[in-house]
Write a structure and sequence with these properties.
- By secondary structure, the chain is of the alpha+beta class.
- The protein folds into two domains: 109 residues, OB fold (Dihydrolipoamide Acetyltransferase, E2P); 186 residues, 2-Layer Sandwich (D-amino Acid Aminotransferase, Chain A, domain 1).
- The chain is 21% helix and 35% strand.
- It has eight helices and 16 strands.
- A five-stranded mixed sheet has the order 5-4-7-8-9.
- A hairpin with a 5-residue loop joins strand 12 and strand 13.
- It is globular, with a radius of gyration of 20 Å.
């Protein structure tokens, strides 16, 4: 598989129309030693983030974490929504941006104004980062949330069931991450630390040094902070045979390919069909009728072909 396809998948993810699930992207990126972060293209109507929005280093084994998980390390749910930044100047909300490539994001100020406090009790310039999430009861809730940020009409945006959860602020306003989250909660924000997010989609657990001094001293790589990581579950796929490919029309009118498989048991469910996304995906995996493939249930629900064996 070429890195060109993963560049394309990354760009579509940050546009809010992902062609791969997180599990699929992580698996393919690991196989190809691909570590680029963010959308490679920046469009008009963009601004630089006041502070770069880093991604989190992934960990699949808590027994082998990037740094020791001691009592001074907090953990919070990792929401599966759309990351954004908020800029406040002398306590007034000024600008809202999508994550974009982490350095530059799309301006979505008027949409985010509908979800966050207009005034906070802080002077100077501060950037609050967080996640816009939709309830997991909504089908494809991450796409639903990310797609809402691309809507042209604020009135359409208001029709979406969305919530903003803060997960950090720059510069830090307290000595510890816990104290900062409590302060943001007191200012009117929902946060991943103070609020119950059981009804929202999650794709892991974030472990973070509680002390901002320790967190800052740990430093950053080009892509992620060294003082935090995301624990994610890496599920083993099941091997079966690709018998046919059919095309179906989705609710949105988009025609997409579906794999017809020898029935196989995945996590207690008998699977005989799986999504293949598009013809480009089929070609990149070099799939042929009769070949052996690895299949997972993305999010424990949707069967997907992730690799040719």
């Amino acid at each position: 598989m070429s890195h060109q396809f993963l560049d394309y998948a990354s760009e579509m993810y940050y546009k809010g129309t992902p062609v791969l699930s997180d599990e699929e992207f992580d698996r393919l990126a690991s196989q190809q030693n691909y570590n680029k972060v963010g959308s490679p293209s920046i469009k008009e109507g963009t601004l630089a983030h006041y502070q770069q929005m880093y991604s989190l280093q992934k960990c699949f084994d808590i027994g082998n974490p990037p740094f020791p998980v001691t009592k001074s390390v907090l953990n919070t749910p990792k929401l599966d929504g759309a990351a954004v930044s908020l800029l406040y100047v002398d306590g007034t909300f000024e600008t809202g941006l999508t994550r974009g490539d982490g350095k530059v994001g799309q301006v979505i100020t008027e949409k985010l104004r509908c979800l966050v406090p207009d005034k906070i009790s802080l002077n100077g310039v501060v950037q609050i980062t967080g996640e816009v999430a939709a309830p997991k009861s909504i089908e494809n809730s991450r796409n639903y949330a990310a797609g809402a940020l691309n809507l042209k009409s604020v009135s359409e945006f208001l029709e979406r069931d969305l919530t903003f959860f803060a997960y950090d602020i720059y510069p830090n306003i307290e000595a510890t991450y816990m104290e900062t989250m409590l302060s943001l909660y007191d200012m009117g924000f929902k946060t991943v630390f103070t609020d119950d997010v059981v009804d929202f989609p999650q794709d892991g657990i974030v472990y973070r040094m509680n002390s901002y001094k320790d967190f800052i001293e740990a430093g950053y790589t080009a892509h992620h902070p060294r003082g935090a990581f995301a624990l994610k579950e890496k599920k083993d796929g099941v091997i079966t045979t690709l018998r046919n490919v059919v095309w179906q029309v989705g609710k949105s009118g988009i025609v997409s390919p579906v794999a017809i498989l020898d029935p196989v048991n995945i996590d207690g469910a008998i699977v005989s069909r799986a999504t293949l996304h598009n013809i480009k995906y089929i070609r990149e995996l070099n799939l042929e009728i009769g070949c052996s493939v690895e299949v997972i249930r993305s999010g424990d629900i949707i069967p997907r072909v992730v690799k040719r064996i």
